[in-house]
């Protein structure tokens, strides 16, 4: 299945957002710390070459005392074995996990042995880089760390026990107990080309809001969580892979170690969206809480407002009789408005009459001077086209005079002899029109003058009525009333500000409140960035889902095959889904993962991780580091044949693939059958390891 390039994805996202182009999408994602990059083949490898431990055993029945363990390891299969239980196998695996993880792996931890270790050294090769992790335990479970780097593994091998100095060896970093996990996390992620996996989950104990939702927090999973694909959960765990099944972490780890393209970026964008949404919800909630707090603090204002309104009501009850004066002002205003309208109408009529008179006089002059007019003497002189009513302008009339083209149809005028009698008759009619238009203009002028006089009189009456009203309001009663009303308005405004209710303020104050309110209070539509993030989630979800399904289909086949080889009986099929469910079937029937026996759960985990490694190898990548630490894979196996088959399969798996290193612990007899002496770490007489 072809993998789209980053440029293609930016274009696809932009295609879902009308207001954005690819550059805008790129900027929006970058602002949230997301940069889409075309995936390159992964090459992750983690090999343990040496484990050296010092300490003192205490509290045992017969084996107290100082101990030193020096294990030489390397690629391929390894067994930490004994014929007895409780002799230190799991504790050595725990010490190794502490060095590799920066924190001891709980599935390997034996509480009674944690205090025994005083020094742990792990020589490793991480993506081709030789390094040595040195832990010094001044307190149990709380080591300091020194990280050494070397030019080659040979230089590290030349160092004895806790020795740190030598040719080609240098101290790369150090950390106190509080910083050990962070140092190892940073080193492993950087060398293995991994990025922290950011998920979003509800905060423990967070109260629910009105919609029943709890505040959530970003949960960042780094190397400590990825390590669950190296050191497998115990058989008792019901989680297929990883420290938790929450937020579909198991399937995200599988996508990561299958190198599903853009899976990490999709998780980043999803988390960024949830973070933005929660922040918006928090702002709104804080605004509601602030409003409720203001509501409780406004009681004094409310009481003062009630007193002011009561005072204003009392004063209004004793006010002078202003009704008549107000009625006079209203009547005068109506008269003034009516006279102003009449004046405007008269002036418009006069303007029209003036225009008509000027036009008629111009027609007389044209008739006296124009040969075109003489040609059309006695004919109509239209103002507009008789068909479409388009006005005949001066340009057409000029063309009629100078070019002898009809002002109506623009056709050339025919040549006809001048008729003096017709011309005289025409001039007489035009002169009559001029006289009539002059009379109409004079009449209109008289009307304007009368309307002006009437309007002036109405305005004077209105001014007088207003003066009487102003005089009546100028007394002390009105001053007290206005003061009381002002107090009411001020208190209402203060109350509106205190409660955040801008609708209770004058328009200008309301605009101020709106302008200074937070965006979440005034804007309901999502901004462009949110729309872009939503489109990016849609596009990447399809890409990740398509490639996950294709890779999971290959992985399903590998899991069934490997699980059979490990001794999981009657397993018909598995069908990994995008929600992390294994969807296994036994003898054709559904068989949830939690229904497997503890031994089979561990074997299904082994099958899943080894399957991921093999699927990666088929694609020419090393997406999984290739290291597996397994504690007691046959501990609860009742069938000797099944246990023998599982041990053989684990040995063959690591022996046949040079990119895999498997370290197991076991007391099973089959270990001595399949693991040669140089691949087995044990104690004297195959009993106490230390």
Describe the structure.
The chain is of the alpha+beta class. The chain has helices at residues 6-15, 22-31, 89-101, 153-157, 180-192, 223-226, 249-257, 263-297, 299-317, 323-369, 371-375, 394-402, 420-473, 476-499, 507-516, 519-522, 528-566, 598-618, 640-656, 670-674; strands at 46-57, 65-72, 76-81, 117-126, 129-139, 142-150, 169-175, 197-202, 216-221, 571-573, 585-586, 589-590, 627-631, 661-666, 680-681. It starts with 5 loop residues before the first helix and ends in a 9-residue tail after the last strand.
Quick rundown:
By secondary structure, the protein is an alpha+beta fold. The chain has 20 helices and 15 strands. Helix content is 51%, strand content 14%.
Global structural class: alpha+beta
Q: For the report, how would you describe the main beta sheet?
A: 6 strands, antiparallel
Cα shape: elongated
**Strand line-up across the major sheet:** 2-1-4-5-6-7
**How much strand content do the residues show?**
5-15%
Question: Over all CA atoms, what is the radius of gyration?
Answer: 48 Å
Instruction: Give the mean pLDDT.
Output: 84
In terms of quaternary structure, what is this? Answer: single chain
Q: Helicity, in percent?
A: 40-55%
First-to-last CA distance = 53 Å
> Number of helical segments?
20
Please report the total strand number as a whole number.
15
Low-confidence stretches: 372-379, 507-526
């Amino acid at each position: 299945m072809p993998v789209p390039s980053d440029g293609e994805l930016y274009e696809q996202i932009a295609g879902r957002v009308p207001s954005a182009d690819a550059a805008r999408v790129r900027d929006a994602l970058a602002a949230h710390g997301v940069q889409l990059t075309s995936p390159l083949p992964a090459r992750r490898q983690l090999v343990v070459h040496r484990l050296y431990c010092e300490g003192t055993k205490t509290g045992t029945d017969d084996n107290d005392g100082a101990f030193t363990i020096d294990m030489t390891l390397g690629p391929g299969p390894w067994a930490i074995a004994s014929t007895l239980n409780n002799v230190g196998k799991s504790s050595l695996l725990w010490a190794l996990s502490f060095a590799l993880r920066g924190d001891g792996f709980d599935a390997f931890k034996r509480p009674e042995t944690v205090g025994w270790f005083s020094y742990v050294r792990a020589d490793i090769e991480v993506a081709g880089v030789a390094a040595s992790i040195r832990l010094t335990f001044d307190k149990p479970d709380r080591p300091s760390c020194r990280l050494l780097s070397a030019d080659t593994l040979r230089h590290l091998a030349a160092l004895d026990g806790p020795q740190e100095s030598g040719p080609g060896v240098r101290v790369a970093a150090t950390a106190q107990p509080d910083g050990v996990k962070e140092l190892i996390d940073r080193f492993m992620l950087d060398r293995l080309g991994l990025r922290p996996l950011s998920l979003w989950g509800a905060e423990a104990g967070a109260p629910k809001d009105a919609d029943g939702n709890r505040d959530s927090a970003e949960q960042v999973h780094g190397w400590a969580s990825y390590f669950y694909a190296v050191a497998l959960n115990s058989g008792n765990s019901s989680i297929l892979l990883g420290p938790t099944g929450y937020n579909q972490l198991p399937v995200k780890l599988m996508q990561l170690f299958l190198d599903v393209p853009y899976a990490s970026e999709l998780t980043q964008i999803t988390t960024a969206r949830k973070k933005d949404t929660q922040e918006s919800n928090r702002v709104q909630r804080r605004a509601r809480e602030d409003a409720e707090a203001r509501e409780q603090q406004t009681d004094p204002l409310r009481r003062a407002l009630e007193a002011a309104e009561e005072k204003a009501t009392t004063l209004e009850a004793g006010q002078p009789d202003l009704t008549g004066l107000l009625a006079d002002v209203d009547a005068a205003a109506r008269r003034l408005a009516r006279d102003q309208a009449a004046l405007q109408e008269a002036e418009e009529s006069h303007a029209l009459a003036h225009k008509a008179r000027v036009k008629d006089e111009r027609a007389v002059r044209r008739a006296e001077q124009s040969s075109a007019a003489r040609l059309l003497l006695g004919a109509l002189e239209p103002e507009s086209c008789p068909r479409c009513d388009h006005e005949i302008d001066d340009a057409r009339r000029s063309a009629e005079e100078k070019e002898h083209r009809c002002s109506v149809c623009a056709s050339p005028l025919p040549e006809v002899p001048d008729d003096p009698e017709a011309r005289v008759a025409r001039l007489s009619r035009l002169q009559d029109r001029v006289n009539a238009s002059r009379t109409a203009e004079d009449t209109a002028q008289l009307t304007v003058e009368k309307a002006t006089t009437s309007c002036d009189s109405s305005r004077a009456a209105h001014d007088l009525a207003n003066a009487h009203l102003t005089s009546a309001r100028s007394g002390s009663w009105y001053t007290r009333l206005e003061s009381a009303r002002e107090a009411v308005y001020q208190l209402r405004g203060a109350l509106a500000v205190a409660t955040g209710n801008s609708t209770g303020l004058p328009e200008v104050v309301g605009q101020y409140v709106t302008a200074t309110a937070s965006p979440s209070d005034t804007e309901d539509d999502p901004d462009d960035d949110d729309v872009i993030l939503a489109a990016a989630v849609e596009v990447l979800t399809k890409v990740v889902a398509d490639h996950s399904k294709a890779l999971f289909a290959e992985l399903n086949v590998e899991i069934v095959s490997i699980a059979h080889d490990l001794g999981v009986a009657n397993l018909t099929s598995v069908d990994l889904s995008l929600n992390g469910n294994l969807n296994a079937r036994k003898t054709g029937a559904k068989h949830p993962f939690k229904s497997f026996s503890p031994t089979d759960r561990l074997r299904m985990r082994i099958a899943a991780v080894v399957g991921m490694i093999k699927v990666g190898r088929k694609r020419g990548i090393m997406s999984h580091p290739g290291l597996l630490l397994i504690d007691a894979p046959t501990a609860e196996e009742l069938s000797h044949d099944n246990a023998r088959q599982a041990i053989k399969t684990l040995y063959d798996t690591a022996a046949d693939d040079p990119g895999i290193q498997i370290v197991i612990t076991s007391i099973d007899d089959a270990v001595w059958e399949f693991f040669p002496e140089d691949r087995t770490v044990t104690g004297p007489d195959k009993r106490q390891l230390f």
